[in-house]
Design brief:
It is a single chain. The protein has ten helices and 26 strands. The chain is of the alpha+beta class and 514 residues long. Strands 11-18-13-16-24-21-26-19 form an eight-stranded antiparallel β-sheet, covered by helices on one side. An eight-stranded antiparallel β-sheet has the order 12-17-14-15-23-22-25-20, with no helix packed on it. Strands 3-4-5-6-7-8 form a six-stranded mixed β-sheet, sandwiched between helices. Helix 4 packs across helix 5, helix 6 runs antiparallel to helix 7 and helix 7 crosses helix 8. The longest helix is centred in the first third of the chain and has 17 residues. The radius of gyration is 27 Å and the shape is elongated. 41% of the residues are buried. It holds the Pfam family PfkB. GO terms for molecular function: kinase activity. This is Carbohydrate kinase PfkB domain-containing protein.
């Protein structure tokens, strides 16, 4: 046994082994050509699955947490194994990859979870999941899932779950009791639907190196988390998404499979993307593990749920975002990295030569403590520039978008709901944070005079982990509104007013448990 894997119960057949040829395309999609070989030759299957002896395939199934099947072996083998697993009280997880034909009806009564991607869902149900533009549509996916559940129900299996994957767009889980009915939530999800996005990749250009095996990694990791570790659906989906993102960063199938420590580290990173949403519905957001509050609306995945506004900013370069809606006055900006330091300069441009607001942001670790801020546009046509002041070895991802309520009103709501403290020019104030706080929101404003100040997060004596340094000619129209993620206990927020004594500012601080 190696790393918990063992092939001891599997006999070797005469003749060539099964072979899979994986074709990788320029768009990072892939296709597989299978040569069955020994995968199609199963002599003595009944003896392998019969009896109660302490060795062999039946014994291995009895020791397992769940049984995972795929279709590169004959249907009758899967049926026999599924029957054995059901007799031993084991959950059966069906990865439908390996062929483009419908599922064997004899298999349907024994399946606990069926896990296709959006194309395989069409193959096994005959229901098209993609629209005219070639992209999956939620209503079509739901119709295909309903057809699959109807087939299982007719076979005496009314409680099957369906897990559909969408590559880099994430995944969508339909629970055992899902019937397509009920009132949709704010993100368009129906009851017993669980959605999950994908993690930002840690590659130099933010793109996959090799997607071979990523789907297998996702499903295997989901099964391990759900059945071996006992995690809930949402937490298992997130674990699987982290594992699959790591698999995309390494060339080769087996070589790309990550270890547990790497997955745990990736779980701390930002997520983007989401499965297809209903027409007109807000884009769905990534789910958080059970027992945790949502990680607020500050993250880069909240600024651009479909990642269309996320830009990679190389060291010593800049990116811009244009805003022209005169009815909206607040832009949300987020910057994150894959664990590298972040040195960013964020500017608001109004017209060709006026920059009324400049924010210098620093983070020691852009993954654990991303840059998160709101910038007022004064209801004018504006452009936001994000410049990477770091070296070329330290790129980061940035996104900017109009803020939506409640984020758009936060610079007004937070001062109205929390006590403020006056900080005179040249003065300093410190605020010790509750060790249980996972995030702290800060608003720094004036009565219309200039705002020239620095607010920073300290961990330990005089040890800044993150800082924001702002200058604006009007601290009422352009207050500083930022969020600090606080993964370390014993943190302190400190503000320094760099302006002359005649220009006081006011600070409001609110802690959140995330």
């Amino acid at each position: 046994m190696e790393d918990g894997r063992s092939s001891a119960p599997v006999p070797c057949a005469a003749g060539p082994t099964g072979t899979a040829y994986i074709l990788q395309f320029e768009d990072n999609d892939n296709a597989i050509v299978l040569v069955g070989g020994a995968n199609q030759d199963w002599p003595g299957l009944a003896s392998l699955l019969g009896g109660n002896e302490g060795s062999g395939l039946r014994a291995a199934i009895g020791r397992s947490s769940a049984v995972m099947l795929q279709r590169e072996v004959p249907d009758h083998v899967n049926v026999a194994v599924a029957q054995c697993a059901a007799a031993l009280g084991k959950d059966v997880f069906m990865d439908v990859g390996g062929t483009d034909s419908p599922l064997d009806p004899a298999l349907l009564p024994y399946l606990g979870v069926v896990a296709p991607n959006e194309s395989e869902l069409t193959f096994i149900t005959g229901v098209e999941t993609k629209g005219p533009d070639g992209k999956p549509e939620l209503q079509r996916v739901r119709a295909a899932v309903a057809a699959l559940k109807d087939s299982c129900r007719a076979a005496g299996n009314p409680s099957v779950e369906v897990l559909v994957t969408f590559g880099g767009e994430g995944s969508l889980h339909f629970g055992a009791g899902w019937d397509g009915a009920g009132e949709a939530a704010a993100d368009g999800a129906l009851p017993l639907e669980c959605r999950m996005g994908s993690f930002v990749l840690g590659t130099a250009d933010g793109r996959p190196v090799d997607t071979t095996g990523a789907g297998d990694c996702f499903r295997g990791s989901y099964v391990a988390a759900r059945y071996a570790d006992g995690k809930g659906v949402a937490e298992s989906l997130r674990w699987a998404a982290a594992a699959a993102s790591l698999a995309c960063e390494v060339e080769g199938a087996m070589a790309s499979m990550p270890d547990r420590a790497s997955i745990c580290e990736r779980l701390e990173g930002p997520m983007v993307g989401a499965p297809p949403a209903s027409p007109g519905a807000p884009a769905p957001q990534a789910e958080m593990p059970a027992g945790l509050q949502p990680a607020s609306a500050w993250g880069i995945g909240e600024v651009s749920p479909d990642a269309s506004l996320v830009q990679r900013v190389e060291g010593k370069s800049r990116k811009t975002w244009r805003f022209s809606d005169l009815s909206r006055e607040r832009v949300q900006v987020a910057v994150s990295s894959v664990g590298r330091p972040v040195h960013a300069d964020i500017q608001l441009w109004l017209g060709p030569d006026w920059t009324p607001y400049t924010l210098r942001a620093y983070s020691e670790d852009g993954k654990r403590r991303p840059v998160q801020t709101l910038v007022g546009t004064r209801c004018k046509a504006a452009m936001v520039e994000v410049r990477n002041l770091g070296e070329s070895e330290f790129p980061f991802a940035a996104a900017a978008n109009y803020a939506k309520d409640p984020m758009a009103s936060l610079p007004i709501e937070l001062p109205a709901s929390t006590p403020g403290e006056r900080v005179d020019g040249g003065a300093l104030r410190s605020f010790a944070l509750d060790p249980a706080a996972g995030q702290v929101e800060v608003v720094l404003l004036t009565d219309g005079r200039q705002l020239n100040a620095r607010v920073e997060l300290l961990v330990g004596p005089n040890n800044p982990k993150q800082s924001y340094e702002v200058f604006t000619n009007n601290g009422e129209l352009n207050s500083l509104c930022v969020a600090f993620d606080t993964p370390d206990a014993g943190a302190t927020v400190r503000v320094v007013n760099h302006a002359p004594v005649e220009f006081p500012c006011y600070i409001h601080v609110r802690e959140r448990r995330v």
